Amino acid sequence: MSRWAAIAKMIDERDKPEARKNPRFVARQMSCKGNGVVQDFSATGVRVLFCKRPKFEIGDVIDLSLDTNMGTHRGVVEVIRLEKKGFRKFEVGFRFTDPEAAKKMQLFKCGYDALDDGHWSAA
């Protein structure tokens, strides 16, 4: 999906009652220090899949460093979700502590396909 199609989709879905306040976007070629791969992001947070259990817990506030094809982006995040997804796979949900973090980190320039489901995947 192109950036313009994703923006058009956001505009069309913003008035629907089930629509998320902040749509999520697929992360492209984003990695996270500690063997993490960014799955998706929104204006308020980011979801990362780690291949081993991270050393933080829910409620921890950490400096997150994301490596992209456009360089390294840093921001302060709070761990809001940590789930074991399989053998040596852990999914972590981070919330940006700064409401403008995604914009300041230039994440919207790094990855941009809108997710269709509008919520965290359960599988």
| Computed structural class | mainly beta
- Name the helix and strand elements from N-terminus to C-terminus, one letter apiece: HEEEEEEEHE
- Determine the CATH superfamily: predicted glycosyltransferase like domains
Number of domains: 1
What is the β-strand count?
8
Label the CATH architecture: Beta Barrel
In a few lines, what is going on in this structure?
With 123 residues, the protein is mainly β.
Helix-strand layout with pairing:
Elements: H1 3-13, E1 25-26, E2 31-32, E3 36-41, E4 45-50, E5 61-68, E6 71-86, E7 89-96, H2 101-104, E8 113-114
Antiparallel strand pairs: 1-3, 1-8, 2-3, 2-5, 3-4, 4-7, 5-6, 6-7
Walk me through this protein's architecture:
The protein has one domain (3-113): Thrombin, subunit H (Beta Barrel). The chain is built from two helices and eight strands. It has helices at 3-13, 101-104, and strands at 25-26, 31-32, 36-41, 45-50, 61-68, 71-86, 89-96, 113-114. A six-stranded antiparallel beta barrel has the order 2-3-4-7-6-5. Residues 116-123 have low confidence and may be disordered.
